[in-house]
Amino acid sequence: MSLRTKLKYLTLTQRATIRFLSHLSHRHNYYPPPLPPPPPQLQDPYSQLKEDPFQILSNLWVKTFTQSHKPFNNLTGFLSKFDLWVLAYQRTCANVTGSFPHKNSIYINTLSDLLSLKNAVVHNHFQWNSKTQQFIRSPNDKPINFLSKRKLNSVLASKTPPFQDLVVQEVLLMILEPVFEPQFSSKSHAFRPGRNPHTVIRTIRSNFAGYLWFIRGDISEILDKVDVNVVVGCVEKAVKDKKILNLIKSGLKGPPRNCTYREDSGEKVCKRKKKKGQTRKRLLNENEPKPDPYWLRSFFDFAPEEAAKIPNYGYCGILSPLLANVCLNELDHIMEDQIIKFFKPCESDSIWKYSIKDSCHNPSWPEFVPASGKEKTRKMDYIRFGGHFLIGIRGPREDAVGIRKDIIEFCDSKFGIRLDNSKVEIEHITRGIQFLDHIICRRVIHPTLRYTSNGGNIVSEKGVGTLLSVTASLQQCISQFRRLAFVKGDRDPEPLPCTPMLYSGQAHTNAQMNKFLESMADWYRYADNRKKIVGFCAYVIRSSLAKLYAARYRLKSRAKVYKIASRDLSRPLRESSNNSAPEYSDLLRMGLVDTIEGVQFSHMSLIPSCDYTPFPRNWVPDHERVLREYIRLQDPKFFCQLNKLVKQQGLCLPQDEISKIVWDYKTLGVFSNRFNGDKESENASHQLMLAP
């Protein structure tokens, strides 16, 4: 349609408006406002993939450990690297779907959505928990356009965080964890790479001998809820980047998530009453990950009280444990300063006579501390796992009371948590202190000391000492089994049949329970009574399976099950009414059934003993040790000092030896050997020619 035809069909009002604007433009130099700029062209996501994400993170770890005491003013550069976002997407997919997608298998549309999410975060357009405006979705999610109204309402009302929130949390964790790790205290062992409850138990065995009074504190309230200003104030000491701080602050302002202990939060969980005929198996979707096996869920339910609660602040998700450690890091450093101030050596004592690092540590046994002498050295030590800490004090009880008072005042002023004496208990070593389902106590022993006197005579004397004992709590193990419906009763527990494995075969059931027993044996690896506690676990599991098989195969009692299947339940069982079934050996030969594994640890001789491997007092994880050695090797001053020491001691560097060998080989060895070899070969040939 031409311009004249368009003007023909315009209304009178539109024509008058056009004449008026043209008249104004000619008389008063008035022009209409300019058109908005065209939208920017879409960026190619493949052009943003320039670096290796693991190399980026490695450089960040090296940089943070090199400048551990300096705050970081600019972390937006790492937040803008698209390679980190792709790695975060891969890790999030592994957690959600159960499979780690390869970088080359990600579709172009997904990369474009991920790039849009990165730009939204960098330009402050991202909102937490936005379920209607999502830049990227999980591979398992369906588009909202194809959802019904009922499903859409359920998605909006659900408490499950969007997939894009998980990706942002993963990126922030990858950036912030290297920043705070070198600043954390070595006394903290929870929610950190390279540290776990085993390192806590080994540290207690190595460093906590000789203490009489123990303070066992519970400040796990900070894992439930914490003030936003407190967290941001603690983060600002190391991170000055406003974009990172605004992301954390907006994420903390979300509603509190459900804690591990739902009964303590006071929430009423309404459950619909299901009818008996309503129980049916649910089919998994195509990309939905399989649930954890029964043995793994049972082992996770055995988690001790100190490790059962995981913080979850607002919309921060997996970033919450790191933020909890950031808040409690100030308490750790205060206790480290208190350890140095509290130390008062005594030369008449048998240990810690002169310095805080001096002690008599026998690595082949648990810590042996002589108890002779009236005056003792005043010393204390501290360790924390999550929201629980343990303090050992060598001194009077009044010192422990004063330290408890200081901790209560600090928690009240810093975090707003009011602790009473029941949360921070003072116990003597003779009563036994329970920590991480292990009991810390001491045994008084009277060893015979034999030595040679000045006259050459062998003298035997009886000494007095204490042996630090770290044993697993049998009562706590029984209560955990009772909670999981493996046993009933307290003093004399009776095993119950393992009903969740009722419809599984004997081979599969034995294999599942063997994995559970292996995990339990590894959990009690550093307990003095490892054989006893693992033997009890094996007895409970074996008896529970025997009762299950007695009910499944109609054998009426455990004795008949043991008679047919042996003590370790490795022989096949079958119903007595089904006599026409083929033999197990024939089915096994044809590959129609699996091999039946016997239940492990059926005899005490098969249970491994306690692991008394020496644990260094100033232990650091392997990744920290490698990082510090790498940083030290990058320092040129270190090589200058090393070269000076070599010259002072008259040693020769390996490089000098190699260069000398090469020079001698080039100048002397090649020609002389070659000449000598040619002359010898000529003489040998001449002799052969003269021979008859």
Automatic annotation (TrEMBL):
Start and end residues of each Domain X domain: 511-567
Gene Ontology CC: mitochondrion
PANTHER family: NUCLEAR INTRON MATURASE 1, MITOCHONDRIAL, NUCLEAR INTRON MATURASE 1, MITOCHONDRIAL-RELATED
Protein name listed in UniProt: Intron maturase
Species in which this protein is naturally found: Forsythia ovata
Lineage, top ranks: Eukaryota, Viridiplantae, Streptophyta, Embryophyta, Tracheophyta
